[in-house]
UniProtKB/TrEMBL annotation:
<protein>
    <submittedName>
        <fullName>Uncharacterized protein</fullName>
    </submittedName>
</protein>
<dbReference type="Pfam" id="PF19457">
    <property type="entry name" value="DUF5994"/>
</dbReference>
<feature type="region of interest" description="Disordered">
    <location>
        <begin position="125"/>
        <end position="162"/>
    </location>
</feature>
<dbReference type="InterPro" id="IPR046036">
    <property type="entry name" value="DUF5994"/>
</dbReference>
<feature type="compositionally biased region" description="Low complexity">
    <location>
        <begin position="151"/>
        <end position="162"/>
    </location>
</feature>
Length: 162
């Protein structure tokens, strides 16, 4: 589930994340401390971004939803934003933005994309791993574990994807 949506102009994280941080700081009055992104969805990912008297840490994952970025604040719950691909047609992107501004309680990311008629992003979809998750507490670039634990083949039966 997501709390909102974001439609960046490019996949350059160094160029796109600073304006997002400034907008969230101003509109929500909350201080972002960390941002989590799907590594293969972005180019030029900095480790830190200067923002109003602080450095915002940027973590990247390979085991998370490639269509979501996470904003972690000094206080309160993190916010998950649906990432609308930069090359999305204006009408489709606006539909997704409007939809996420409404009550999306109970809607998964896929449901929002389908309702907004937003096609899967081939640049992200080709490298994503279905069914994997990661926590903002486990940042790959800060020494967190990036290797999924292997299930013992003798103890765990193989399961088909849902």
């Amino acid at each position: 589930m997501v709390d909102g949506a974001w439609w960046p102009c490019s996949r350059n994280a160094a160029a796109e994340l600073p304006p997002l941080i400034a907008a969230v700081d101003q509109r929500l009055g909350r201080t972002i401390l960390r941002i989590g992104v799907y590594r293969d969805a972005w180019q030029h990912i900095p480790r830190r971004i200067p923002a109003r008297g602080r450095q915002v840490r940027v973590g990247w994952f390979r085991h998370s939803d490639p269509r979501v970025i996470t904003l972690v604040f000094a206080t309160g719950e993190p916010i998950a934003l649906l990432l609308i691909p930069p090359d999305t047609a204006a009408g489709t992107a606006e539909a997704a933005l409007k939809l996420t501004a409404q009550d999306t309680t109970g809607l998964a990311t896929d449901d929002i994309l389908i309702l907004a008629s937003l096609p899967p992003d081939p640049a992200i979809h080709a490298t994503s791993r279905a069914g994997t998750t990661d926590s903002p507490a486990r940042w790959e670039n800060e020494g967190g574990s990036v290797i999924a634990q292997k299930a013992s083949t003798s103890d765990t039966p193989a399961s088909a994807p849902a």
